[in-house]
Amino acid sequence: TVNGFCSGAVATGLNWWLVRSVARGSGSSAAKRAARTIFVIEMIYGLAVGAALLIGAPFIAGWFFSKPELAPFVRLSAVGVISYILVAYRSSLYHAFKLFFKDAVFNVVNSGLFFAAALVVILVLRRGVLLLGTLYVVIPVVVSGIALLMPAFSSKLKAHEEDGVHAETPPDRGYSWLLIYSISLWLASQVHLLVMTRTRSLEELGAYALAMKIYLVSLMLTNAINVVLLPEFSACRSRAEMRSRYGRIFKFTAIGAAVIAAFIPLTGIILGAIAGDRYVEAIPILRILLVGTALSTLLSPPLKVLFAEGRYRTLAVAGVSMALVNTGGQLLLTPRYRATAAAWVQVGSFQLMNGILSILASKLLSQPD
Question: I need a labelling partner for 284 at 20 to 30 A (CA). Which of 56, 125, 290, 321 fits?
């Protein structure tokens, strides 16, 4: 939770900027400058926040979370923040050059190594989760470092620099709006976990966290669509071309949403197979979150259309509105109505934003070039 809370404020918006800069063919020098600038900003931010977490771990665990025993894990987040940022940067850089398969390979390697480490730590060494947490933040740093230093990737960068097909395009304006939007997403993605950690028992938090983990797995299709759409829509040279791609993609996302919705009645069976009867409280939470997955999958394309068109101010206004609704709902409802309220607020606030963005994207696409 601390890793995600601290890293997401900067990484999302800057990395989207990087993807769009390369996908639009903004010229080799501009793309290279964007990549270098983003990496420096993110690393300075990560080192500063990491130092603050390392020094302030007892205060954060005891005062903010009301659970002093979490101090060692907050200290681990000093490395975890840098780990998160490095993974996000590596993934975005690969997406910018449309190296989706290679990025997926590194994601699988990262997950596979951690899974193997978990088996060794828990079943063989029979050690506690602190060692597992250490491996959780260290393995991604190693894997992403290798990915960024690979000769094959360096040659791809060099080929892009030598490509003279695309002319230099004027730099985008309004990145302050994009930063506001990304911070809003970051805030809304973390507040529910922070409120749950502070106001509910660790047992209830465990049930909620399990439902969230399965929910994140259910978002794989949505995330995969978003990964492809961002550079694809950004590369469109006319609104007619974007309308054509939008129509084809929307049919695909509608089918995906229907498939995900079909799993909602099976939630109890899924949780039972994963965790037995110990997490029965997670069943209604997961059902609510899966509704959110289906809707998010259906409404994936509109956000990327607005981003590709550079409508950052529109995204910022929608994002801030969503974050305010989300934060207010979590603070008012979650302490009293428990984890199901947290899930409903999370799904409701995000889908309210998605609905507004869908209307705006449709109006934009209906306009002539």
Answer: 321
